[in-house]
Write a structure and sequence with these properties.
The relative contact order is 0.13. Helix content is 69%, strand content 0%. Helix 12 runs antiparallel to helix 15. The protein is mainly α. The radius of gyration is 28 Å and the shape is globular.
Length: 302
């Protein structure tokens, strides 16, 4: 009885590896289309930034008359005019005012929101659930609804035209979003750490500062990044409370620049916009790794 044998395929050469075979695999058209679509979306999102940088170097007559992205001639004097500031206030004074307000807001939010989050996440007290629900409900409250009562209070306290109305509320845990963010992170920490600290004689405050607070660093850095960006870009609240030009921030100075110099100062105005944007970009690039980690570990947990 004869048996037929099927010839087996020759073995792959010994020098051929799996990675080499993967390189020879043709790229799927769907993947190419996905990458091209992502690249097109990236170009659309970066176009306003490119336009801002290009316009900051355009002469005054080109800003409105020409729609070209690249300037016909580079006008570096726009930046020198912007560095001179507005209303006899230099750009360095405006920059220091913005840093003072943003830095105070960051310190206040990180400290007060972490304390409030520790109370809701780790402590046991009466009406904790209803109070936490009420705190979450304040997220839906528009900022403009409380602006007038706050202005009346600060006006009676003599704090209008100072930085206190822009910094002091941050030390009172008024940002419910950040409280919720840190609460979600703290709920994932093991309670055995606090129990061990309690056995060693630590009370609630020492447990918070020595045990819980160092472990919540990603959530705290996320709070700091968002607070810095939102405070730096804030215009309406600063416009309400600040009157004196020497107390203006860079955001308010942009508006004053246009009012003082009319339409002939578009170039310097865009140059000052680039200067105002630079600290935000640097701050974000320095802490973006912690931002992703904090959002992944706190905002998604139930």
């Amino acid at each position: 009885m004869t048996t037929s044998t099927t010839p087996s395929s020759p073995p792959a050469p010994s020098g051929t590896s799996a990675s080499t075979a993967a390189l020879r695999t043709p790229v799927a058209p769907r993947r190419v289309a996905l990458h091209l679509g992502a690249l097109a979306a990236l170009l659309v999102m970066l176009y306003p930034l490119a336009w801002l940088l290009a316009t900051s170097l355009k002469p005054a007559d080109e800003v409105i008359a020409s729609l070209d992205l690249l300037p016909g001639s580079l006008e570096w004097s726009n930046y020198s005019t912007a560095l001179d500031g507005v209303n006899d206030v230099s750009v360095w004074r405006l920059l220091s005012n913005s840093l003072l307000i943003a830095g105070g807001a960051v310190v206040g939010n990180v400290l007060s929101c972490s304390l409030a989050a520790y109370a809701f996440a780790r402590l046991r007290f009466r009406f904790r659930g209803p109070l936490f629900a009420f705190m979450i409900a304040t997220i839906m409250l528009p900022h403009h609804a409380v602006l007038i009562p706050q202005y009346i209070i600060f006006n009676q306290l003599g704090m209008v035209n100072t930085y206190w109305p822009l910094i002091l509320p941050k030390f009172l845990a008024t940002e419910a979003f950040f409280v919720f963010l840190i609460v979600q992170f703290m709920r994932g920490l093991p309670r055995e750490l606090e129990e061990a600290a309690r056995i060693d004689g630590c009370g609630p405050f020492r447990s918070f500062f020595l045990v819980i607070l160092p472990l919540t660093r990603p959530a705290l850095i996320t709070t700091a990044i968002f607070t810095f960006i939102w405070t730096w870009n804030d215009f309406f609240t600063q416009l309400i409370y600040l009157f004196s030009p020497e107390k203006f921030t860079l955001t308010l100075a942009l508006r004053s620049f246009v009012d003082a110099s009319s339409t002939s100062a578009f170039g310097p105005m865009f140059a000052m916009s680039v200067i105002a944007l630079l600290p935000i970009v640097l701050f974000f690039l320095a802490f973006q790794r912690f931002l992703v980690e904090g959002m992944a570990n706190s905002g998604i947990k139930g």
